[in-house]
Design a protein that fits this description.
nine-stranded mixed sheet; Stationary-phase Survival Protein Sure Homolog, Chain: A; alpha/beta; 25% helix
């Protein structure tokens, strides 16, 4: 461990999750770990922030090389608390968000609290990595995610890559020995189509449960992250936040 290096951690499954413990296992190999994570699950929060309620920061773990706080807010709240308050006078070398229980490939990156936090961290000009395992099980096996997550973290720390840098890393839910390697990919084109199950509560009020399925618009595109995962690779997608549709600019100039 490089005691001079500081790694900041957060996630969206809360500081109690097994994936967060796995992220700490990765980070402590490379430096001193300071973490601020939600005190309750915050999946699907994307870039949400808390503006109508107070935030409470609480220390939940301290040992040599590891300091963990919980916050009653969103993943992005945790990042903002870290860099606009906690780390105002301290240099941070890398941010890891995760390890998420469930895939954040394809359009999931837009909904994900895990990736929301990683993207937010990149706004502070710090390299960030969102790590996810394609298994929602609370007791998922993170061996492969720890092994390949460690390789990616080491490469980023030693790679002298210009910032802003944000990587969306997804690990397939297969035995570690069956993972074929790391594949640099692009985001798969596709979308979610939701279905709402309607029920009635004991008071006669209707309520709904949200479910749905992802529709892959290009299942045979070998350069995509979904293809990489389906074929046994760890998918790594570099993320940017400029949402401008440049291909439509010229046509829009003609009509506006």
């Amino acid at each position: 461990m490089n005691k001079e290096r500081v790694i900041f951690l957060t996630n969206d499954d809360s500081y109690r999750s097994k994936g967060f413990a796995a992220a700490i296992e990765i980070a402590r190999k490379f430096g001193r770990v300071i973490a601020i994570a939600p005190d309750a699950p915050q999946s699907g929060m994307s870039q949400a922030i808390t503006i109508y309620n107070p935030l409470y920061l609480r220390k939940v773990r301290e040992e040599e090389g590891v300091l963990v706080y919980s916050l009653n807010g969103t993943p992005v709240d945790c990042v903002k608390m870290a860099f606009d308050h906690f780390f105002r006078d301290e240099k941070v070398d890398l941010v890891i968000s995760g390890i998420n229980h469930g895939s954040n490939a394809a359009v999931n990156v837009l909904y994900s609290g895990t990736m929301g936090a990683a993207i937010e961290a990149a706004f502070y000009d710090i390299p960030s990595i969102g790590l996810s395992l394609t298994d929602h099980n609370l007791d998922a096996d993170f061996e492969g995610a720890v092994k390949y997550g460690s390789k990616i973290v080491e490469s980023v720390l030693n790679g002298d890559i210009p910032t802003p840098l944000c990587l969306n890393v997804n690990v397939p839910n297969i035995p570690c020995s069956e993972i074929k390697g790391i594949r640099l990919s692009r985001q798969t084109r596709g979308y979610w189509r939701e279905e709402f199950y309607k029920r009635t509560d004991p008071h006669g009020r209707d309520y709904f449960w949200l479910t749905g399925a992802f529709s892959n618009a290009e299942p045979d595109a070998e350069e995509s992250d979904e293809w990489a995962l389906a074929n046994g690779y760890v998918a790594v997608v570099p993320i940017q936040v400029d949402l401008t549709a440049y291909k439509q600019m010229e046509q829009l100039k003609k009509i506006l």
